[in-house]
Amino acid sequence: MTDNELRKAIGTLRDRADEARRHGNPEDAEAIEKTIRDYQDEMSTRL
C-alpha cells in the first residue's frame, strides 16, 4: 500500500471503530483498532 492508501484506510477504520462502539460492539472496535495500530506501525517504519 502507498502512504496515501494507508492514511485513507486508517481514517476509514477509525470511523468503523467509532461506529462499532456506538452500536455496542467494543470487541469489534478493539479488533479494528489493532489493525489501525498495525498500519500506523507500518507507516512509521517507512519514515
What does this entry look like structurally?
The protein has 47 residues and is mainly α. Helix content is 87%, strand content 0%. The protein has 2 helices and no strands. The chain has helices spanning 3-22, 26-46. It is elongated and about 35 Å long.
Share of β-strand residues: under 5%
| Global mean pLDDT | 96
Radius of gyration: 11 Å
- Helix fraction bin: over 70%
Low-confidence stretches: none
Count up the helices. 2
User: In this structure, how is the largest beta sheet organized?
Assistant: none
- What's the shape? elongated
Count of DSSP E strands? 0
SSE order: HH
Q: What is the CA-CA span between the terminal residues?
A: 15 Å
Class based on secondary structure composition and strand pairing: mainly alpha
Question: How would you summarize this macromolecular structure in one to three sentences?
Answer:
The chain has 47 residues and is an all-alpha fold.
What's the helix and strand layout?
Elements: H1 3-22, H2 26-46
Helix pairs in contact: 1-2
Which features characterize this protein?
mainly alpha; 47 residues
